[in-house]
Amino acid sequence: MSMQANWDDLRLLLAVSRRGSFLQAGQLLGLAASTVSRRLTQLEVALGEPLVERGVEGCWLTSRGQSLVEVAVAAEAGLRGQVVTASGSHSSLSGRILVSAGEGFASCMLEAASRFTTLHPGCSVELQVTADFHKISRGVADIALRTAHLGEPSLIYRSVGTLAYGVFADASYLQRFPAVTPATANIIALLPPLDMLPQMRAAKAANLGCAQISVSTFAAQLEAVRRGVGTAVLPRILATDLIELFPELQIPGMDVYLVTRPQALKQVHIKTFYSVLEQVVRQTMGLSPGSGCQTVFTHLRQQGIQRLG
Fold first, then answer.
1. Strand ranges (E), 18-109
2. Would 303 be classed as within a structural domain?
3. Three-state SS sequence of 166-183
Protein backbone atom coordinates (compact mmCIF):
# COMPACT_ATOMS: atom_id res chain seq x y z
CA MET A 1 0.00 0.00 0.00
CA SER A 2 1.53 3.33 -1.06
CA MET A 3 1.22 5.70 1.90
CA GLN A 4 1.53 8.79 -0.29
CA ALA A 5 -1.20 7.69 -2.69
CA ASN A 6 -3.57 6.71 0.13
CA TRP A 7 -3.01 9.49 2.67
CA ASP A 8 -6.68 10.51 2.45
CA ASP A 9 -7.74 6.99 3.45
CA LEU A 10 -5.23 6.92 6.30
CA ARG A 11 -6.47 10.32 7.46
CA LEU A 12 -10.03 8.95 7.62
CA LEU A 13 -8.93 5.98 9.67
CA LEU A 14 -6.93 8.23 12.00
CA ALA A 15 -9.97 10.48 12.55
CA VAL A 16 -12.15 7.46 13.38
CA SER A 17 -9.53 6.24 15.84
CA ARG A 18 -9.37 9.62 17.57
CA ARG A 19 -13.11 10.33 17.68
CA GLY A 20 -14.57 6.82 18.07
CA SER A 21 -17.42 7.19 15.58
CA PHE A 22 -18.03 7.90 11.91
CA LEU A 23 -20.20 10.90 12.82
CA GLN A 24 -17.54 12.64 14.92
CA ALA A 25 -14.77 11.69 12.50
CA GLY A 26 -16.82 13.26 9.72
CA GLN A 27 -17.33 16.41 11.76
CA LEU A 28 -13.57 16.64 12.28
CA LEU A 29 -12.87 16.28 8.55
CA GLY A 30 -15.90 18.14 7.21
CA LEU A 31 -17.46 15.01 5.70
CA ALA A 32 -20.78 13.21 6.11
CA ALA A 33 -20.71 10.12 8.34
CA SER A 34 -21.99 8.05 5.40
CA THR A 35 -19.03 9.21 3.32
CA VAL A 36 -16.57 8.18 6.02
CA SER A 37 -18.24 4.78 6.33
CA ARG A 38 -18.35 4.20 2.58
CA ARG A 39 -14.73 5.13 1.97
CA LEU A 40 -13.48 2.96 4.83
CA THR A 41 -15.56 0.06 3.52
CA GLN A 42 -13.93 0.53 0.11
CA LEU A 43 -10.51 0.49 1.78
CA GLU A 44 -11.39 -2.70 3.67
CA VAL A 45 -12.49 -4.36 0.42
CA ALA A 46 -9.26 -3.31 -1.28
CA LEU A 47 -7.17 -4.73 1.56
CA GLY A 48 -9.29 -7.83 1.98
CA GLU A 49 -9.72 -7.52 5.74
CA PRO A 50 -11.73 -5.45 8.24
CA LEU A 51 -10.20 -2.34 9.73
CA VAL A 52 -13.06 -1.10 11.91
CA GLU A 53 -15.57 -2.94 14.09
CA ARG A 54 -18.97 -1.23 14.05
CA GLY A 55 -21.14 -1.15 17.17
CA VAL A 56 -24.21 0.57 18.59
CA GLU A 57 -22.11 2.82 20.84
CA GLY A 58 -19.46 3.66 18.24
CA CYS A 59 -16.64 1.86 16.52
CA TRP A 60 -13.17 0.58 17.30
CA LEU A 61 -10.19 -0.58 15.30
CA THR A 62 -9.15 -4.11 14.50
CA SER A 63 -5.47 -5.04 14.90
CA ARG A 64 -4.93 -4.36 11.20
CA GLY A 65 -6.70 -1.01 11.52
CA GLN A 66 -4.51 -0.08 14.48
CA SER A 67 -1.34 -0.91 12.55
CA LEU A 68 -2.46 1.43 9.78
CA VAL A 69 -3.24 4.16 12.33
CA GLU A 70 0.35 3.94 13.53
CA VAL A 71 1.45 4.51 9.93
CA ALA A 72 -0.96 7.46 9.70
CA VAL A 73 0.39 9.02 12.92
CA ALA A 74 3.93 8.78 11.56
CA ALA A 75 2.84 10.27 8.24
CA GLU A 76 1.03 13.11 9.98
CA ALA A 77 4.13 13.83 12.07
CA GLY A 78 6.21 13.92 8.91
CA LEU A 79 3.88 16.39 7.25
CA ARG A 80 3.90 18.62 10.31
CA GLY A 81 7.68 18.49 10.43
CA GLN A 82 7.93 19.56 6.80
CA VAL A 83 5.73 22.59 7.50
CA VAL A 84 7.85 23.60 10.49
CA THR A 85 11.12 23.13 8.58
CA ALA A 86 9.82 25.18 5.67
CA SER A 87 8.82 28.01 7.98
CA GLY A 88 12.30 28.21 9.49
CA SER A 89 10.98 30.10 12.52
CA HIS A 90 9.15 29.22 15.72
CA SER A 91 7.04 32.35 15.26
CA SER A 92 5.61 30.70 12.12
CA LEU A 93 4.70 27.39 13.73
CA SER A 94 1.66 25.62 12.36
CA GLY A 95 -0.14 22.39 13.08
CA ARG A 96 -2.76 20.89 15.35
CA ILE A 97 -2.16 19.58 18.86
CA LEU A 98 -4.47 17.01 20.44
CA VAL A 99 -4.59 17.23 24.23
CA SER A 100 -6.57 15.34 26.84
CA ALA A 101 -7.37 16.13 30.47
CA GLY A 102 -9.93 15.54 33.18
CA GLU A 103 -12.48 18.28 33.80
CA GLY A 104 -10.56 19.58 36.81
CA PHE A 105 -7.65 20.53 34.56
CA ALA A 106 -9.68 22.17 31.80
CA SER A 107 -8.81 25.68 32.99
CA CYS A 108 -5.07 24.89 32.92
CA MET A 109 -5.34 23.47 29.43
CA LEU A 110 -7.36 26.43 28.17
CA GLU A 111 -4.95 28.94 29.69
CA ALA A 112 -2.00 27.17 28.04
CA ALA A 113 -3.88 26.95 24.73
CA SER A 114 -4.68 30.66 24.87
CA ARG A 115 -1.08 31.65 25.54
CA PHE A 116 0.24 29.29 22.86
CA THR A 117 -2.17 30.21 20.07
CA THR A 118 -1.66 33.91 20.78
CA LEU A 119 2.06 33.44 20.18
CA HIS A 120 1.54 31.01 17.29
CA PRO A 121 -1.71 31.85 15.47
CA GLY A 122 -0.96 29.25 12.79
CA CYS A 123 -1.45 26.47 15.36
CA SER A 124 -4.63 25.03 16.81
CA VAL A 125 -5.28 23.09 20.01
CA GLU A 126 -8.02 20.46 20.29
CA LEU A 127 -8.91 19.66 23.89
CA GLN A 128 -10.75 16.52 24.90
CA VAL A 129 -12.10 16.88 28.45
CA THR A 130 -12.71 13.35 29.63
CA ALA A 131 -12.25 11.04 32.58
CA ASP A 132 -10.91 8.35 30.25
CA PHE A 133 -7.21 7.83 29.67
CA HIS A 134 -6.80 8.32 25.94
CA LYS A 135 -4.41 5.98 24.17
CA ILE A 136 -1.54 8.40 23.74
CA SER A 137 0.71 5.71 22.32
CA ARG A 138 -1.82 5.27 19.50
CA GLY A 139 -2.03 8.92 18.56
CA VAL A 140 -5.44 9.62 20.08
CA ALA A 141 -3.79 12.47 21.99
CA ASP A 142 -0.40 14.16 21.70
CA ILE A 143 -0.27 15.31 25.33
CA ALA A 144 -2.37 14.45 28.38
CA LEU A 145 -2.63 15.56 32.00
CA ARG A 146 -3.11 12.55 34.24
CA THR A 147 -3.36 11.81 37.94
CA ALA A 148 -2.13 8.23 37.55
CA HIS A 149 1.10 6.67 36.32
CA LEU A 150 0.15 3.64 34.24
CA GLY A 151 3.75 2.57 33.72
CA GLU A 152 3.64 2.58 29.93
CA PRO A 153 7.30 2.19 28.86
CA SER A 154 6.69 3.82 25.47
CA LEU A 155 5.50 7.11 27.00
CA ILE A 156 7.16 10.00 28.80
CA TYR A 157 5.74 10.80 32.23
CA ARG A 158 6.81 14.07 33.84
CA SER A 159 5.67 14.87 37.37
CA VAL A 160 4.45 18.46 37.67
CA GLY A 161 3.29 18.48 41.27
CA THR A 162 0.77 17.12 43.74
CA LEU A 163 -2.89 18.08 43.76
CA ALA A 164 -3.80 19.02 47.34
CA TYR A 165 -7.32 18.37 48.64
CA GLY A 166 -9.45 19.67 51.46
CA VAL A 167 -13.06 19.88 52.60
CA PHE A 168 -14.77 23.05 51.35
CA ALA A 169 -18.06 24.91 51.70
CA ASP A 170 -19.59 28.13 50.49
CA ALA A 171 -20.21 31.06 52.84
CA SER A 172 -23.97 30.66 52.43
CA TYR A 173 -23.80 27.09 53.74
CA LEU A 174 -21.84 28.22 56.81
CA GLN A 175 -24.34 30.98 57.50
CA ARG A 176 -27.03 28.32 57.77
CA PHE A 177 -24.86 25.81 59.64
CA PRO A 178 -22.31 27.80 61.68
CA ALA A 179 -21.73 24.90 64.08
CA VAL A 180 -20.92 22.35 61.38
CA THR A 181 -18.60 19.53 62.43
CA PRO A 182 -17.05 16.66 60.45
CA ALA A 183 -19.80 14.38 61.69
CA THR A 184 -22.67 16.70 60.78
CA ALA A 185 -21.38 18.04 57.45
CA ASN A 186 -23.70 17.44 54.52
CA ILE A 187 -21.37 15.94 51.91
CA ILE A 188 -21.90 16.18 48.14
CA ALA A 189 -20.63 12.73 47.18
CA LEU A 190 -19.43 11.26 43.90
CA LEU A 191 -21.05 8.27 42.24
CA PRO A 192 -19.06 5.17 41.21
CA PRO A 193 -16.38 4.83 39.98
CA LEU A 194 -15.28 8.30 41.17
CA ASP A 195 -16.16 7.42 44.75
CA MET A 196 -13.15 5.09 44.79
CA LEU A 197 -10.62 7.89 44.35
CA PRO A 198 -8.14 8.03 47.27
CA GLN A 199 -9.44 11.30 48.65
CA MET A 200 -13.03 10.04 48.63
CA ARG A 201 -12.04 6.82 50.38
CA ALA A 202 -10.14 8.85 53.00
CA ALA A 203 -13.24 10.97 53.64
CA LYS A 204 -15.34 7.83 54.15
CA ALA A 205 -12.72 6.34 56.48
CA ALA A 206 -12.82 9.52 58.55
CA ASN A 207 -16.64 9.19 58.83
CA LEU A 208 -17.00 12.61 57.27
CA GLY A 209 -20.66 13.62 57.40
CA CYS A 210 -23.52 12.07 55.48
CA ALA A 211 -24.19 12.13 51.75
CA GLN A 212 -27.76 13.03 50.82
CA ILE A 213 -26.81 14.07 47.29
CA SER A 214 -24.44 12.23 44.96
CA VAL A 215 -23.37 13.39 41.49
CA SER A 216 -21.49 11.85 38.59
CA THR A 217 -19.06 14.66 37.71
CA PHE A 218 -16.63 16.97 39.51
CA ALA A 219 -18.25 19.95 37.79
CA ALA A 220 -21.64 19.11 39.30
CA GLN A 221 -20.07 18.55 42.70
CA LEU A 222 -18.33 21.93 42.61
CA GLU A 223 -21.50 23.67 41.42
CA ALA A 224 -23.49 22.14 44.28
CA VAL A 225 -20.97 23.41 46.84
CA ARG A 226 -20.93 26.90 45.34
CA ARG A 227 -24.74 26.99 45.56
CA GLY A 228 -24.49 26.27 49.27
CA VAL A 229 -26.13 22.85 48.97
CA GLY A 230 -23.42 21.09 50.99
CA THR A 231 -19.72 20.49 51.47
CA ALA A 232 -17.28 18.38 49.46
CA VAL A 233 -13.74 17.10 49.22
CA LEU A 234 -12.25 19.28 46.47
CA PRO A 235 -8.86 20.17 44.99
CA ARG A 236 -7.63 23.41 46.49
CA ILE A 237 -6.86 24.85 43.07
CA LEU A 238 -10.57 24.68 42.19
CA ALA A 239 -11.82 26.01 45.52
CA THR A 240 -10.40 29.51 45.38
CA ASP A 241 -13.77 31.12 46.12
CA LEU A 242 -14.74 28.66 48.88
CA ILE A 243 -13.91 28.20 52.55
CA GLU A 244 -11.86 25.30 53.83
CA LEU A 245 -13.26 23.27 56.72
CA PHE A 246 -11.64 20.81 59.11
CA PRO A 247 -7.96 21.33 58.15
CA GLU A 248 -7.04 18.68 60.70
CA LEU A 249 -8.43 15.95 58.44
CA GLN A 250 -5.75 14.15 56.45
CA ILE A 251 -6.93 14.06 52.85
CA PRO A 252 -4.31 12.50 50.52
CA GLY A 253 -3.17 14.41 47.48
CA MET A 254 -2.86 13.13 43.91
CA ASP A 255 0.30 13.28 41.81
CA VAL A 256 -0.13 15.02 38.47
CA TYR A 257 1.77 14.03 35.33
CA LEU A 258 2.26 15.43 31.86
CA VAL A 259 2.25 12.46 29.49
CA THR A 260 3.34 12.35 25.88
CA ARG A 261 5.16 10.27 23.25
CA PRO A 262 8.86 10.73 22.44
CA GLN A 263 7.88 11.04 18.76
CA ALA A 264 5.47 13.89 19.57
CA LEU A 265 8.20 15.96 21.21
CA LYS A 266 10.23 15.76 18.00
CA GLN A 267 7.62 18.04 16.41
CA VAL A 268 8.47 21.64 17.21
CA HIS A 269 4.93 22.92 17.62
CA ILE A 270 4.01 20.11 20.04
CA LYS A 271 7.24 20.50 22.00
CA THR A 272 6.62 24.25 22.26
CA PHE A 273 3.07 23.78 23.51
CA TYR A 274 4.30 21.11 25.95
CA SER A 275 6.66 23.68 27.50
CA VAL A 276 3.91 26.29 27.77
CA LEU A 277 1.52 23.78 29.35
CA GLU A 278 4.13 22.60 31.84
CA GLN A 279 4.75 26.20 32.90
CA VAL A 280 1.03 26.88 33.36
CA VAL A 281 0.43 23.68 35.33
CA ARG A 282 3.43 24.23 37.59
CA GLN A 283 2.31 27.80 38.27
CA THR A 284 -1.17 26.57 39.15
CA MET A 285 0.08 23.66 41.25
CA GLY A 286 2.51 25.98 43.01
CA LEU A 287 -0.30 27.77 44.83
CA SER A 288 0.32 27.57 48.55
CA PRO A 289 -2.30 25.53 50.47
CA GLY A 290 -4.00 28.69 51.74
CA SER A 291 -3.63 30.75 48.58
CA GLY A 292 -6.89 31.96 47.11
CA CYS A 293 -9.02 30.61 49.95
CA GLN A 294 -9.57 31.29 53.61
CA THR A 295 -9.82 28.80 56.41
CA VAL A 296 -13.21 28.60 58.05
CA PHE A 297 -11.80 30.22 61.18
CA THR A 298 -10.70 33.37 59.33
CA HIS A 299 -14.02 33.63 57.53
CA LEU A 300 -16.09 33.21 60.64
CA ARG A 301 -14.11 35.91 62.41
CA GLN A 302 -14.77 38.26 59.50
CA GLN A 303 -18.48 37.48 59.59
CA GLY A 304 -18.62 38.04 63.34
CA ILE A 305 -19.69 34.49 64.06
CA GLN A 306 -18.12 33.43 67.33
CA ARG A 307 -18.94 29.73 67.55
CA LEU A 308 -17.67 27.07 65.19
CA GLY A 309 -18.78 24.07 67.20
1. 52-55, 58-61, 95-101
2. no
3. EEEECHHHHHHCCCCCCC
pLDDT above 70 (res 210)? yes
**Residue with the larger pLDDT of the pair 76 and 302:** 76
Largest Cα–Cα distance in the chain? 78
Residue 309: is its pLDDT beyond 50?
A: no
The residue with greater pLDDT, 1 or 247, is 247
Domain final residue, candidates 225, 252, 279: 252
User: No. of H helices and E strands in the chain?
Assistant: 10, 13
Cis? peptide before 193, omega within 30° of 0? yes
Question: ∠ CA(101), CA(105), CA(107), 5° rounding?
Answer: 120
Do 122 and 267 belong together in one domain? yes
Domains in the chain, number: 3
Q: Based on the domain organization, do 263 and 139 belong to the same domain? A: yes
72 and 128 housed in the same domain: no
Report the distance separating Cα 185 and Cα 191, nearest Å: 18
- Answer yes or no: are the C-beta atoms of 188 and 215 closer than 8 Å: yes
| Residue range of the domain that includes 36 | 1-88
Number of other residues whose CB lies within 10 A of the CB of residue 284: 18
Please say if the pLDDT value at position 117 is more than 90: yes
